[in-house]
Structures are given as C-alpha cells and as structure tokens.
Amino acid sequence: MLNPYALALAAALALAAHAPLQAAPPPTITEDGLQRVENRNFDRLYRRPGADFAPYTKVLIAPANVSFRSSWNPRDYGRFGLRPDEVNRIRTELAELVREAFVEVLKEGRYQVVDEPGPDVLEVHPDIVDLVVNAPQPQEPGRVRTYVLSAGEMTLALEARDSVTGTVLARVRDRKRDPDTGTLKWATSASNRADARRALRAWATQLRGALDAARMR
Q1: CA distances (Å), 103 to each of 44, 62, 78, 110, 176, in order?
Q2: pTM for the whole thing?
Q3: pLDDT digit string (tens) for 1-19?
Q4: Residue (of 77, 84, 208) closest to 152 by Cα position
Q5: 131 beta partners
Q6: Where are the domains of the chain?
C-alpha cells in the first residue's frame, strides 16, 4: 500500500515542476550601493545616494555595446540565414545610431558633448541589450519583401559615471518595443533604421529630462 505522505509529496513536486517561474523582483539596493528610485520615465532607475549632478555641465558619450537577445537566431532570416558580417553590420550601425541620437538630443538641450574626461564631465554608457529585429535585411540578390506587425524591440542598459573616478552615479534599464498596430508593414533597412532612431531619440530625451531635473535639486 502506498504511503499517503509519499503520494502528497510526489503531487507537490509534480505541481512545482510545472508551475511557472516567478521573476525575482528587482533589488531595492544594488551590490554596488545604488538605490532604486521610482520614476515615470524608465522601467528601472537606480541612483547613488547623495549623488550630485549639478557640477556636470558636459557629457562624454561612450561607444555603445549592442547585443542580441540570446533566443534571437540569425539563421532564421533569409534563405540561408544572416552571415556573421551581416549581424556585425546591424550591431555596428545601431551603435552609431545610438551615439548620433544621444549627441543630437543632448546638444538640443544645451549640453556640451565632449571626448575627454574632466571634473565637470558626466560619462554616459548607453548600451543596447536584448535586441530583436523581426525582419533584418540580408544582403542577397532577389530577396522577397517582408511584412511585419512590429519591427522588434530592444532594451537600454545605461550607466552614468563620474568621468574622472569612474564611480557609477546612476543606472537605467528600459525596454522599448515597436508598437503592433495590427497592420502589416513592409520592413526595409530604411524602415528599421527609422524605427530604431525614433526609440533612441525618445530614450535620449528621457535622459536629458532626468539630468535637467537632477541638476535642479
């Protein structure tokens, strides 16, 4: 005769094995001492307690690192998949777009963008992670038109540091997805670039607004 306690334990283990994993809530304080701040602009914003942004009148924008989501497979696109050089081209062009958008928006806000560190220089690292491009354009002759509901999505992983000491003053993580309007649209390299630029300028505008607010405190 089966032990009822053993049956109960087996049932509990079976339910646990099929239960969806709950994502751990983001920490209130990071390992390097940044404290989470509730805000409307970003999914997550962490700031070093006591950090003073008032002295920073100039911004140094570090080269962006761009990485695809681990589940994104270049072999799924085109007749033969994307070649390594085509994947690298996407990453390189997006990194250039990141810098272009952030420089434009910060200069529009009367921030001076510089290339050297200094006591009044804030160093910004605007990396892109979890990139998903639904219809990248392989460089192959006679390719067919591709229609999508959404161009894709990406996440900004940004750090703001003192440019002299390298101390991290703030950290941001924010996800943007090209909206699904319910209507198919023709995806081209130009449309992908326009969608990415729109998202990047929005992030840069949010950063400029956050810097303006922090410097006024």
Answers
A1: 23, 11, 34, 11, 20
A2: 0.79
A3: 445 444 444 444 444 444 4
A4: 77
A5: 68
A6: 24-212
